[in-house]
Specification:
The protein is α+β, with helices and mostly antiparallel strands. It has eight helices and eleven strands.
Length: 207
């Protein structure tokens, strides 16, 4: 397939394309698809962001949109300090993109940045919304909860929360609702204690 035709075909799938998807779309073998993608990359029309994953877009996409591609077929959402920074309630810009996943905890380096995945169990899979730019983002409360939960699940009773901007309202009732869903009695107790001691200002409806 000619490069110009391949680009138009793959751009319709993008912004990220798996090699197997590219091969199917272009009706080529995987090896032929890789050669085509390498040609597009040489021409500045594609970029290999991780083994088997290619960026094919007119403009570089938000790196966070890559999170769900890296966890397929499992879902994912941006959380922890990455979500808090996006909401503007912490000043520090995280170096890594912190993501909640139903899969295993792991760190994944890519050409668009390093992703840090943390396991969140199905019963706690809530508290996030879809952004217009095609990635899922945790609420302020869920980002705080996820941070505390992951640390306590590892046996650390008093995790350090990021310095949240003074005056940020937090719905403590929502935090308690999620805490009550934790299956492990030990982890549930640790999370409840940690959140109780955290310097968080209750919102008007969540005191």
């Amino acid at each position: 397939m000619r490069s110009s035709t391949a680009y138009v075909t793959l751009k319709g799938i993008g912004p990220f394309v798996i090699t197997s998807e590219a091969a199917a779309a272009m009706r080529e073998s995987s090896s032929a698809a890789v050669r085509t993608l390498r040609t597009l990359e040489r021409d500045g029309l594609a970029r290999n962001v991780r083994h088997g994953i290619w960026e094919v877009a007119e403009r570089s996409p938000d790196p966070r949109t890559l999170a769900v591609v890296l966890t397929r077929p499992l879902p994912a959402y941006v959380s922890f300090d990455s979500a808090l920074a996006e909401h503007g309630v912490i000043d520090e810009i995280p170096r890594r993109i912190a993501v909640a996943t139903l899969g295993k905890a792991r760190t994944v380096p890519t050409a668009l940045g390093t992703f840090e995945f943390h396991h969140i169990p199905p019963e706690l899979w809530t508290g996030f919304v879809r952004r217009s730019d095609e990635f899922y983002l945790a609420s302020v409360e869920k980002a705080i909860f996820d941070t505390v939960y992951v640390e306590c699940a590892r046996g650390r009773p008093l995790p350090r929360l990021p310095e949240i901007e003074e005056g940020t309202p937090v719905d403590r009732a929502l935090l308690e609702e999620w805490t009550s869903r934790i299956r492990s009695a030990r982890a549930r107790t640790l999370v409840r204690e940690a959140l109780g001691q955290a310097p968080l200002r209750p919102s008007a409806g969540g005191a």
